[in-house]
Structure prediction request, 245 residues.
Amino acid sequence: MQYEDIKLATFIERPNRFIAYCQLGDQRVTTHVKNTGRGREIFIPGVTVALNYQPKPTRKTDYDLVAVKKDDKHWVNIDSQLPNLIVKEALQAQQLHLPGMPELKRFKPETVYDKSRIDFWAETVTGQDLWIEVKGVTLENNGVVAFPDAPTVRAVKHVHELIRAVSEGAITYLLFVVQMDYAQRMTIYHQRAPKLAAAIQAAKAAGVHVVALDCNVTAKSVSLRRPVSFDLDAPFQEAQSIEKE
Prediction:
């Protein structure tokens, strides 16, 4: 995926979950942050950020903050809409290769299953249902990435729906899109989401495929890259500077 008009700026502060102030040349601009997660380990004053220029009469801001250059080394994409977009691109190009995934006949985004809306439904060439629920991952410390960045109830519900779909004969995937290119391992943040960790443990036992893929990330573009090892039992601890807050 390629953004239309990226401009590099310097992050100043984030007064709430929805907006941030950035220095763009000689202008202080208000930007829409495309992720309501906490992100405190990356939103550090002075860090370089990527702003997508999207002026419209209906918008309150002209810019979307879509990526942060962490430690002045690695781009981390924080756009919460991006994971579904790049998975859709991969499905359309028949380039989404997940463990055990058969050839697909067709697919449809945002499909209702029971009382939930799952990100993707597909039909295999043999007529079997296949479901994919996508989650974006931006929280990282010392090469380990973790989900979620903030408490979530919906994710637990989605995992239980995937378990139910397996019991009805479907193939199901919980796909974590790691929005960076340097993660060594992925886990669930047990302290923040113990119910989700328990649900995923049950899902793996039931036959749900739990997969993590990282991305090629620049300020202007993002694409799926390669698998990241998923270890449900791996410990995760946020950076010390964040824990003290």
